[in-house]
Amino acid sequence: KLDLAVASTDESFEFRTKRSGALLLLFERVLKSLAVFQNNEYIVRKFLRRMVVLAFRSAMENTWSWPDSNCMLLRYVFRSISAGKFEESYKELLPLIPSVLNGLYRVLCASSDTVISHTAIELCLTIPARLSSLLPHLNLLLRIIIPALDSDSGDLVNLGLRTLEFWVDNLNQQFLYPEISKQANLLSSLTQSLSRHLRPAPYPYGLLTLRLLGKLGGKNRQVLRDSFALGNHPSCE
Q1: Within a 10 A sphere around the Cβ of 111, how many other Cβ atoms?
Q2: What does the angle CA 166 – CA 171 – CA 176 come to, to the nearest 5 degrees?
């Protein structure tokens, strides 16, 4: 049963053991079933907060082993709940957002390992929540978008661009720019990161980046007031 499986994560969800592999496979199948059988969300929701708390706590105690079974479980949970847009599950996880985001951001800042950094970025940008619930953390999330765009992972670049475009499309015109302006050089760093992807076809993210910059400038002309050096990128030629 799911309650026994969740209870087992507290003691035996170790990195790459047979038991953790079996538990992870069970959780994966249960969470993926939400896409087809949405009524299963009611059952999963009862264990959702405890599942995330246990997995996150164990992951933070063993960051050297990332991406371990705990990170994989968090990935399955975040993506499954976000894809289904389950409102009640969003509410269940809402109290955990500050600690999860800040914990992952500390890992990102402290680690020089690419795999660990990429894992932390992905989890931050896929945390299941309504945009209104993320507004208090938007400045932190903007700082996470930048390493996502600067990464050598196509999946993370795409995730960063899509996430930023979603914010630009859905936030009030007068809200996003003040958030970007709260921290010195954030707009400059963000624009430089975006400019690296202004490349012609067959580069897959050039058109998306151009469209995003057009939306960003069209939403609020204040973004044109700050001057900054973007530098030259021979790879864009």
Answers
A1: 17
A2: 100
Residue type for position 94: L
- Mean pLDDT along residues 6-11: 51
Report yes or no: 83 and 110 within 8 Å, Cβ to Cβ. no
Q: How far apart are CA 28 and CA 79, in angstroms?
A: 11
Minimal CA–CA distance to 196: which of 161, 159, 168?
A: 161
Task: Write out the two tokens for 172.
Answer: 């009030």
Q: How many CA atoms lie within 13 A of 219 on its CB side?
A: 20
pTM of structure: 0.84
Exposed (0-12), middle (13-18) or buried (19+): which is 185, by Cβ within 10 Å? Answer: exposed
Question: Nearest to residue 190, comparing CAs of 205, 180, 179?
Answer: 180
